[in-house]
Amino acid sequence: MKMIIRIFFMILSLVSSISSASVQDFCIADPSGPQSPSGYSCKNPDQVTADDFAFSGLAKSGNTSNMIKAAVATGFAPAFAGVNGLGVSVARLDLAEGGVVPIHIHSGASEVLIVIEGTIRAGIISSANKVYLKTLQKGEVIVFPQGLLHFALNGGTGPAMAFAAFGSSNPGVQLVPNALFASDLPAELVEATNFLSHEEVKRLKGVLGGTNEPSLSLY
Ligand SMILES: *[C@@H]1O[C@H](CO)[C@@H](O)[C@H](O)[C@H]1NC(C)=O
Q1: CA of 163 to the centre of ligand 1 (A)
Q2: For residue 96, which of 27, 153, 39, 137 has the smallest C-alpha distance?
Q3: Which atom of ligand 1 is nearest to the CA of 63?
Q4: CATH class of 52-172
Q5: Minimal CA–CA distance to 144: which of 160, 122, 128, 129?
Q6: Which positions bind oxalate (predicted)?
Q7: Hey, which of 69, 126, 190, 207 would disulfide with 99, CB 3.0 to 4.6 Å?
Q8: What is the H or E stretch that residue 216 is in?
């Protein structure tokens, strides 16, 4: 009996030493490995350096010389390898005067937006189609709940800048205008499912680069 108890405690201490040795502090993304819903596979911990925990992709202002006069830089996994598996990520938003981030959703995370410079008008549309609008000044913050339609635009004169934080290492971004007018959803279906005229759908597909114009198909 004594022997059995001894063996039992030996096994127990062995198991606990193995489990404490395998406690995983982090999982730096290895984009060459397989990806799962919980994230990317882990880089060999022996090869991890301080650089893997840092990201310089938000350091510079983005180029806002574009149609929406806005630039968004994202620090999601695997570009920001260190956030993989940690349930956090970041982004930077630069808005020239008149700049807009079109209506979009993040299916994977809520977002906190922190205004660093200028004035930003932000809006949320709930699933009950209630609209929440807020004008934010430097230092002010707004939260966009996960999965809800939201947008941001420059609400002042001069440039605006904000940082965003997300509750996922890969929150996903889907812009509604792009889903409708930059995709190859046939124009007649965009019209029928959104109660829009053919002229307007044609114009927006032209602006945003969507394909599948009926005029291109041969009858
Ligand atoms: C910003 O983008 C525009 C349009 O693509 C381009 O012409 C311009 O050279 C870019 N500016 C910089 C500083 O990269």
Answers
A1: 22
A2: 153
A3: 1
A4: mainly beta
A5: 122
A6: 106, 111
A7: 69
A8: none
CATH 2.60.120.10 intervals, the chain? 52-172
d(CA 189, CA 151) in angstroms, rounded, equals 25
Q: How many angstroms is it from 78 CA to the middle of ligand 1?
A: 26
- Written as tens digits, the pLDDT of the chain (219 aa) is 666 667 555 555 545 544 555 678 999 999 998 888 888 999 999 999 999 999 999 999 999 999 999 999 999 999 999 999 999 999 999 999 999 999 999 999 999 999 999 999 999 999 999 999 999 999 999 999 999 999 999 999 999 999 999 999 999 999 999 999 999 999 999 999 999 999 999 999 999 988 876 544 333
The answer to whether 146 touches 108, Cβ cutoff 8 Å, is yes
Parallel/antiparallel/unpaired status of strands 141-144 and 100-105: unpaired
Question: Residues marked as binding for Mn(2+)?
Answer: 104, 106, 111, 150
Q: Whose CA is nearest to atom 13 of ligand 1?
A: 63
Amino acid identity, position 63: N
**Which residues lie below 8 Å from residue 68, measured CB to CB, with a gap of 6+?**
99, 100, 101, 102
| Closest C-alpha to 111, from 149, 77, 147, 144 | 144
